[in-house]
Design brief:
Strand order of the largest sheet: 2-3-1-4
CATH topology: Alpha-Beta Plaits
Oligomer: single chain
Helix content: 25-40%
CATH architecture: 2-Layer Sandwich
Order of helices and strands: EHEEHE
Shape: globular
Number of strands: 4
Number of domains: 1
Length: 93
């Protein structure tokens, strides 16, 4: 089964001001939920802003992402499937 790439936007007030230990605890909580849903979902990385995170996941479908949000307690405010990836080398002939 091929997993698809998704960006999950999570509205979490003041997440950008969390300390390293708090972020470690959040990651552990997410990993625990992921272990229950494996192999249908994988967390690649997250970007933390002031009041939200942008998480990159590989998943079977949007439903498994919503299930992860339910189990972990972290909201999935907006889920967007990535259709293509471009970078500076895309401009090369």
């Amino acid at each position: 089964m091929a997993l698809r790439k998704f960006i999950i936007e999570r509205d979490i007030p003041k997440v950008g001001s969390l300390e390293r230990d708090q972020l470690r605890e959040a990651a552990a909580k997410s990993n625990e939920a992921l272990s229950k849903l494996s192999p249908d979902i994988q967390w690649q990385e997250s970007y933390v802003a002031a009041d939200k995170t942008f998480c990159v996941y590989l998943a079977k479908d949007e439903a498994v992402i919503r299930k992860h949000a339910e189990i972990s307690g972290f909201p999935a405010t907006k889920i967007t499937e990535v259709r293509k990836v471009i970078d500076p080398t895309t401009a090369a002939p």
